[in-house]
Amino acid sequence: MASISASLFTSYAIVRPNSRKQSRRKPLRIPNPKPKFNTQSSRYKSPPEPAVLSAGEATTYSRLPPKEDFLVPSLNPSPEVKLSESAVPKIENQIGDLSSEEEEEEGVENGDLGLNEKFEIYEGDSGLEYDEEIDDDDGEEDEAEEKKVLGFTGRKSVYRYGNDGNYKGIVKEHGVSAKLYVFGEDDDDDGDDDDGGMPGFDSGQSVNVSDDEGDCVKEKGVPAVMRCFDRAKIYVKAGDGGNGVVAFRREKFVPLGGPSGGDGGRGGNVYVEVEGSMNSLLPFRNSMHFRAGRGAHGQGRMQGGAKGEDVVVKVAPGTVIREADKEEVLLELLWPGQRALLLPGGRGGRGNASFKSGANKVPRIAENGEVGPEMWLELELKLVADVGIVGAPNAGKSTLLSVISAAQPAIANYPFTTLLPNLGVVSFDYDSTIVVADLPGLLEGAHRGFGLGHEFLRHTERCSALVHVVDGSGPQPELEFDAVRLELELFNPELAEKPYIVAYNKMDLPEAYEKWSSFKEMLQARGIKPFCMSAVKREGTHEVICAAYELLRKSKREKQELEGLKNLENLNHVADMVHKQRSASINEFEIFHDSSSNTWRVIGSGLERFVQMTNWRYVDSDKRFQHVLEACGVNKSLMKLGIKEGHIVIVGEMEMVWHDSTHSSGPSTVKKESSESIKWAKWK
Ligand SMILES: Nc1nc2c(ncn2[C@@H]2O[C@H](COP(=O)(O)OP(=O)(O)OP(=O)(O)O)[C@@H](O)[C@H]2O)c(=O)[nH]1
Ligand SMILES: [Mg+2]
């Protein structure tokens, strides 16, 4: 047998919290990125209740005062599900509300806002250096800089419209104020087609934004509110376990009362629950950190600590949850009341009463509480509507919804009136209802992100049937129809498979009426039965929605089967995974060697957890730790691999220096000697 040198950590061996970067393999302990925003209290604040609906309130989010605006009273006054909520800003009003006070403060003249111009909303990246501008008192330079960059994020949003590149005032959006500029064609005169010289901005439409209030997933070219409507990024952390304590019973006439240190309490769990009244993810803009309470520490007289407070993250029906920056879906929560245990709280550390044994009747050892797992999650909402209304911009989709339900979406004669999806509930005579979603218009290239369709196309994925509204008054309704179908197919081929109805709209207009017969023939040739209607005059709309309902009924059985499967799904599988990881044996570890720095890293979740729970304040902890390293074979493996005097050994959060003994013998001797000789001390 090859002789193996005995190993020991000498009395001056060193232990210190591992300051080195942890390498791989801690799947559920995502390195906690520095929160960009103020962390909130560890207590859970449930998302604010959705705004109470008031009659006559527009349900769409419009950018401009609608021209020829009108709201058609509903045929069936049924309850309306409002998506945009009162929290969604109505920029058209706020532009009108620009206070002269604010304009003076900024020292820039506020010109005509040009509300008649068609304008686009762009956004600025928080990563830009504009924050400095806010704090900077150097007025002259600022003004020059502003003119140069032609776009500024007061607090991160930039609105851009028109062609002349002049500052126009301040827009307030959802409590966030932003300067409003009108852009020149190429204001910095450098001849290139850029974004007005805004550093960090892509050319063309794509400008992204970050918002101080919440860390929504960044998407180019979409205002923050719209992005946060159906996407959010949140941080969740289960509570740490409370620490166990070392205590001894002291009582008159009871000599040698024995250990009486209680165990720490278990940390609070993180649950995710579907809240039926929620219909967007906007509440996560203001509240993005969810931390369960930590368990209370144990106390003397065998008193265990209290359990930490649980936290329940409430999400809207139809929310898909992924771990941040990962593709794999963790949870798909569809139905109100569904509740999943996502992260279980950390175990409480044991007090010294729990360590009492025949061999050690006076244990001076207690454990730290186990650290609760943490995660960054990406939430994505896919509406759960039965029927989705799709079509090109300005086709009359919102008008149709307003006619068949009590929903009152904004309707106006320009494209992209609807920026956020609207839901309406349609009631039928025989006491059945369906939920219909009116989606923003689709442009050619929507699947690649043109227009707004890309943002909301996914909402159609959950619809069982689609109503495709075609603007009959358009120049070429056939082409428009094909373009929208193609976009659906390109976005997701399954969308094109969904049953759908074609509703040829605006039949009251002569230009639409004239083209109807050719359009009808074209569809019939393809085996599709077209419907014609005039949404404004409410003619033909009933037939359209009844046909959609029929389609729904056909696919109902299939859907019910699917729902049954979903209900059987184990919603707690993430927590199960955490439990499994926690119960990993300390004997399972891997050793990695970095020869350049003579560092040995011992990786194994069981061992790392053990290190984390070791409370180094107590003398017996050292002994126990040494014993465990011996017992699980770490020392032996390191020696076999050729560890030398002075090398660094890292286990979990601890970093130690290895010292060889002078004599060597067989493995049994090694075990005995090293276990007796290893000493650990806090790193100084
Ligand atoms: N003449 C006529 N006009 C209609 C009809 N339906 C809708 N409109 C008009 O078409 C314009 C657009 O209607 P919307 O319902 O806002 O269209 P939309 O498809 O929701 O448009 P986006 O939300 O921008 O995609 C409005 O001016 C409506 O008054 C119709 O049947 N006849
Ligand atoms: Mg609309």
UniProtKB/TrEMBL annotation:
Chain intervals for the UniProt region annotation (Disordered): 15-146, 185-214, 661-684
PANTHER family: DEVELOPMENTALLY REGULATED GTP-BINDING PROTEIN-RELATED, GTP-BINDING PROTEIN OBGC, CHLOROPLASTIC
GO terms (BP aspect): chloroplast organization; ribosome biogenesis
Cofactor: Mg(2+)
Acidic residues bias (residue ranges): 99-109, 122-144, 185-196
One Gene Ontology cellular component annotation held by this UniProt entry: mitochondrion
Protein name, UniProt field: Obg domain-containing protein
Organism from which the protein derives: Carpinus fangiana
